[in-house]
């Protein structure tokens, strides 16, 4: 069980758990320029105040115990009654500059607040919330710029009875840059059709507005737009992409163009060739990929909206353009992917080319795929993974896979797709993809607050990728609200939308409070 064991301490906690954080510190450690006892090994289990650390508030709720991340012990916060406690360490004599705190953490959730903070460093306090991750350790980071030669490292809980956190193996070291994510984006592919069918988008206060502008004002800086070759409904083709790209760039956003190389959805279960390419030989398909990619991207460049990043294929775990481009024939798949890469670079050498897989928590599968790609000479600049927590494994699995991909292939990585419900019921008559409480990720309710917590958690994981290789996050289909005629099936105007409860606009068309994730540092 990942909570502190109930010892004699549990009998004493009710006597002290209600103390406010304004109480005097239980103990003040002597300041130093480096973290002391960062792995909580100095005192063994049961230390009320770990060596080198100080405590504030409900001090009996903070202690060391067995079961560390890297060593034998960890810091835990827990009490049988509601409590507020801070475990902190003050550093002085620091050289001014950029620093980065790293910590391994886990939490059972349920707190009013549980976070690691860097404060009194000369600027605004920097916080990172502890993710709800009872089953595995998660590494989080908190960047700060020290300007007064000092900083306080703080672990704080404002918790209800029985809530717990574990913290271990902290490091605080100089860092290059200021941290944060370069990409805070959203897929808005559904937007033009939604608007054409009467879709309306409002600010949180209810004023009608442009969805791109509303999301930009929340902090979005990158838009992802898919391309289909010749869809039955006339959307997602070249002309529509060009028009949407003008709006994206006019709003000061960067642009990711996501080529599906299909007339419809492409994903791990379906990679059907466009009708116009049916019956083409493998050699012709390579030409098709090049010409289609070049045509769309060159037209974007010609109108002053050059793509900043391109995905050659969408969720291509099993390959693309089946069966010629299946992973059953890696040499041919490599040829198709390299045709796409060559076309991108022929239009704009600075445009980054990403390869995109689903199942972001599948370490073995991701390794197998990219090992095969590298062995077959596939060229790429970045790695994108889809990770939906209700399908793709635990958060710890996602972090392990993302970190491994960045280190193993020496490329920047990003979360290409994720989403989370803000409610479970449907607005239209189509059953939602996620509509039952048992389908949710534990600790993340189907509320705007739960949606925001999910997004901040996955953004924190991407930010924590070692070496600064975590580019950022794209929210999938932020604008796909329930609008009649804008369903999932391009061949059926009456089809519904199973994702409207995971948009970033509510059933009243207002931007949700969860759009605040775009302001993630």
Describe this protein's structure.
The structure is a single chain. With 521 residues, the chain is α/β, with parallel strands linked by helices. It contains nine helices and 18 strands. Helix 5 (282-302) runs parallel beside helix 6 (330-347) and helix 7 (363-375) packs parallel to helix 8. The chain has helices at residues 8-16, 191-196, 211-218, 238-250, 282-302, 330-347, 363-375, 395-409, 448-463; strands spanning 54-57, 62-66, 73-78, 83-92, 97-107, 113-119, 126-129, 138-146, 150-159, 164-174, 183-187, 222-227, 254-259, 309-312, 352-357, 382-386, 413-418, 470-475. The radius of gyration is 25 Å and the shape is globular. An eight-stranded parallel β-barrel has the order 11-12-13-14-15-16-17-18, surrounded by four helices. A five-stranded antiparallel beta sheet has the order 1-4-9-6-7. The protein has a five-stranded antiparallel beta sheet with strand order 2-3-10-5-8. Strand 14 (309-312), helix 6 and strand 15 form a beta-alpha-beta unit. The longest helix is centred in the middle third of the chain and has 21 residues, at 282-302.
List the keywords.
alpha/beta; 18 strands; 9 helices; 23% strand; 521 residues; globular; eight-stranded parallel barrel; disordered N terminus
Topology readout:
Layout: H1 8-16, E1 54-57, E2 62-66, E3 73-78, E4 83-92, E5 97-107, E6 113-119, E7 126-129, E8 138-146, E9 150-159, E10 164-174, E11 183-187, H2 191-196, H3 211-218, E12 222-227, H4 238-250, E13 254-259, H5 282-302, E14 309-312, H6 330-347, E15 352-357, H7 363-375, E16 382-386, H8 395-409, E17 413-418, H9 448-463, E18 470-475
Parallel strand pairs: 11-12, 11-18, 12-13, 13-14, 14-15, 15-16, 16-17, 17-18
Antiparallel strand pairs: 1-4, 2-3, 3-10, 4-9, 5-8, 5-10, 6-7, 6-9
């Amino acid at each position: 069980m990942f909570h502190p064991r109930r010892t004699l301490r549990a009998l004493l906690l009710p006597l002290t758990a209600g103390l406010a954080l304004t109480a005097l510190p239980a103990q003040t450690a002597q300041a130093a320029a480096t973290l002391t006892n960062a792995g909580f090994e100095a005192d063994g289990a049961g230390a009320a105040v770990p060596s080198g650390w100080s405590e504030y508030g409900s001090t009996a709720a903070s202690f060391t115990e067995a079961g560390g991340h890297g060593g034998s012990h960890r810091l835990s916060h827990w009490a049988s009654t509601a409590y507020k406690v801070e475990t902190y360490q003050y550093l002085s004599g620091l050289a001014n500059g950029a620093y980065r705190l790293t910590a391994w953490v886990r939490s059972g959730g349920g707190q009013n607040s549980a976070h690691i903070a860097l404060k009194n460093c000369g600027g605004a306090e920097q916080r990172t919330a502890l993710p709800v991750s009872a089953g595995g350790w998660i590494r989080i980071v908190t960047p700060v710029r020290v300007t007064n030669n000092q900083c306080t490292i703080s672990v704080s809980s404002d918790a209800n009875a029985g809530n717990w956190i574990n913290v271990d193996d902290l490091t605080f070291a100089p860092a290059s840059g200021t941290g944060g994510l370069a990409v805070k984006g959203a897929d808005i592919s559904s937007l033009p059709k939604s608007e054409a069918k009467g879709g309306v988008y409002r600010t949180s206060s209810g004023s009608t507005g442009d969805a791109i502008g509303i999301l930009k004002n929340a902090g979005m800086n990158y838009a992802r737009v898919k391309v289909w070759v010749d869809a039955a409904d006339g959307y997602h083709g070249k002309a529509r992409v060009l028009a949407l790209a003008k709006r994206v760039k006019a709003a000061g956003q960067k642009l990711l163009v996501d080529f599906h190389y299909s007339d419809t959805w492409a994903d791990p279960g379906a990679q059907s060739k466009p009708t116009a390419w049916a019956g083409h030989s493998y050699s012709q398909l390579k030409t098709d990929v090049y010409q289609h990619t070049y045509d769309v991207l060159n037209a974007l460049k010609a109108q002053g909206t050059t793509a900043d990043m391109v995905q050659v294929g969408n969720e291509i775990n099993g390959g693309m353009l089946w069966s010629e481009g299946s992973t059953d024939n890696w040499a041919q798949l490599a040829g198709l992917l390299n045709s796409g890469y060559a076309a991108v670079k022929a239009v704009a050498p600075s445009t980054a080319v990403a390869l995109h897989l689903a199942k972001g928590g599948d370490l073995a599968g991701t390794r197998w795929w990219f090992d095969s790609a590298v062995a077959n000479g596939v060229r790429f600049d970045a790695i994108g993974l889809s990770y939906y927590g209700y399908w793709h494994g635990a958060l710890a699995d996602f972090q392990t896979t993302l970190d491994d991909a960045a280190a193993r292939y020496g490329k920047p990585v990003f979360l290409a797709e994720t989403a989370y419900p803000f409610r479970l019921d449907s607005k239209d008559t189509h059953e939602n993809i996620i509509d039952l409480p048992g389908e949710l990720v534990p600790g993340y309710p189907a509320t705007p607050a739960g949606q925001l917590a999910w997004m901040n958690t996955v953004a924190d994981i991407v930010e924590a990728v070692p070496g600064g290789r975590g580019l950022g996050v794209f929210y999938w289909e932020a604008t796909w609200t329930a609008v009649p005629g804008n369903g999932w099936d391009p061949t059926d105007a009456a089809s519904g939308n199973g994702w409207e409860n995971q948009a970033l606009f509510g059933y009243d068309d207002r931007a949700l409070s969860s759009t605040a994730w775009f302001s993630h540092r």
